[in-house]
Structure formats: C-alpha cells, structure tokens
C-alpha cells in the first residue's frame, strides 16, 4: 500500500441503492478501512486486484468505490488511485461505519463516547418529557415499567423492553433529533457485546430501581429529578457493565 499526504475529499454523489454484490464489497471494505487495515493516506488495491479478491466484475468494484466515497471513506485522485481519507471526512453516523468502529481494537473509546452522548441528550429529554407528559402517556409509561418488572428473570427480554422504555421517554420529550441520534448510535453499539455486557439478576434489579426512579419523576412532572435520575441511571449502568481495558 502506497502512502501519501492527505488531501481534500472529492464531492460525493447522493446515496443510492447498490446491487447485492456491491453492497457486500462495500461492507467488507468499510470494515477494513475503519479498522485500519487500510490506514488513512494509503491507496486501496487497484480495481483488477479488488475484482480478484472479491470475485466480482469491475462494474461492481466501481459501484462499491462510489459508495465508499459517499461515506467519506475514500477519494479517487488522478495519478494515485483510490485513497483512504482521514476519519475527519467519514460519515460517522453511517451504520456500516458505526459497526466497524465498535470492532476496532480501541472500541472502548467509542463505547465510552456513546455513553457521553446518551447522557448529553437523554437527560434534557427526560426533563422535557416530565414537563410535557400527558395523563395517557403517564399510563403508558407505567405499563412499560410493569412489563419490565415482569422480565427481571429474562435479561434479553428486559434489554429489549428497556430500550422501548427509553425510546418512549424520548418520544414524549418531543426532541426528534435527539431521539434519532440516540437510536442510531446506540442501535449499532448494541451489536457489540462490550456495550451490552452480561447482566446478572442483581444487575437487573439495580437497573429496575433506576427505571422506577425515572418513572416516578416523570409522573410527578419534576424535570430536575427526571434529568438527574436519567443521568445517574445511564452513568451507573455503564460503570457496572463496562469491560476492562484491552
């Protein structure tokens, strides 16, 4: 792989649907780039080599290269080839890029960042929800808490209901952008065992107490208590399940 100084990214075309073979090549190359198999400033193998590697046509490789450019991962430069760009150019909220970030050797750095983002966004959303919640929404939230209480012996089912509980609070808050960002980032982080951990029954009990505190603050219409309860819950939950340094 040839190394050269970084340069400006070429303007990327609008995203579009890719043929299945191209999509598979895009996923493989996205992972290879993000996990630094192809570091920033290096040049991807030429089209002919990629055709042989993936057993596809040049048309497929061309489609895949366009998709990588749309994600900000590469730029095609005259006389150099397809160059890997610095992370500052990447579309970090792209699902394939997020998946690959959580596969890196330094994945814990990115998982910690997910928690920071959640605290930054979810605490004010909880506060806003406490101010906006209606009687019907209070009833629905109480139903969700009751459902969680019945799942304390099933970690997988509890985790799914846990996400729905938080998402409903985001919905009640009216913060559409915050809800979308948390859903996007956490949705990909959940694919990493380092994020989800392996909660014990005792962990679930502690988590449920935290959910109850959030629920009670929302039903009381107390924005300050709701935000504080959410902050404590997200931070403490991560401290309990956070994996050790690799």
SSE topology sketch:
Elements: H1 20-34, H2 47-54, H3 58-70, E1 74-77, E2 81-84, H4 95-101, H5 107-132, H6 135-149, H7 155-173, H8 176-189, H9 193-196, H10 201-219, H11 223-241
Antiparallel strand pairs: 1-2
Helix pairs in contact: 1-3, 1-4, 2-3, 5-7, 5-8, 5-10, 5-11, 6-7, 6-10, 7-8, 10-11
What does this structure look like?
With 246 residues, this protein is mostly helical. The protein has two domains: 20-90, Winged helix-like DNA-binding domain superfamily/Winged helix DNA-binding domain (Arc Repressor Mutant, subunit A, Orthogonal Bundle); 102-241, Four Helix Bundle (Hemerythrin (Met), subunit A) (Up-down Bundle), CATH 1.20.120.530. Helix content is 65%, strand content 3%. The chain contains eleven helices and two strands; from the N terminus they run H-H-H-E-E-H-H-H-H-H-H-H-H. It has a two-stranded antiparallel sheet. A hairpin with a 3-residue loop joins strand 1 and strand 2. Helix 1 runs parallel beside helix 4 and helix 5 runs antiparallel to helix 8 (176-189). The longest helix is centred in the middle third of the chain and has 26 residues, at 107-132. Residues 1-14 have low confidence and may be disordered.
């Amino acid at each position: 792989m040839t190394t050269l100084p970084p340069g400006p990214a070429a303007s990327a075309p609008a995203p579009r649907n890719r043929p299945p073979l191209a999509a598979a090549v895009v996923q493989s190359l996205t992972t290879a780039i993000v996990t630094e198999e192809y570091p920033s400033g290096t040049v991807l193998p030429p089209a002919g080599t990629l055709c042989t590697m993936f057993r596809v046509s040049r048309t497929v490789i061309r489609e895949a290269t366009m998709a990588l450019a749309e994600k900000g991962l590469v730029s095609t430069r005259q006389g150099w080839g397809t160059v890997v760009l610095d992370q500052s150019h990447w579309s970090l909220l792209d699902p394939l890029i997020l998946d690959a970030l959580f596969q890196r050797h330094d994945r814990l750095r990115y998982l910690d960042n997910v928690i920071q983002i959640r605290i930054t966004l979810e605490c004010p959303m909880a506060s806003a929800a406490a101010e906006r919640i209606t009687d019907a929404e209070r009833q629905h939230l109480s139903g969700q808490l009751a459902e969680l209480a019945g799942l304390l012996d099933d970690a997988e089912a509890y985790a799914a209901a846990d996400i729905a509980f938080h998402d409903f609070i985001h919905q009640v808050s009216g913060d559409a952008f915050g809800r979308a960002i948390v859903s996007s980032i956490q949705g990909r982080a959940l694919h990493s065992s380092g994020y989800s951990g392996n909660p014990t029954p005792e962990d679930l009990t502690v988590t449920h107490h935290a959910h109850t505190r959030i629920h009670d603050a929302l039903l009381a219409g107390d924005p300050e208590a709701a935000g504080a309860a959410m902050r404590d819950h997200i931070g403490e939950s991560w401290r309990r399940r956070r994996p050790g340094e690799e």
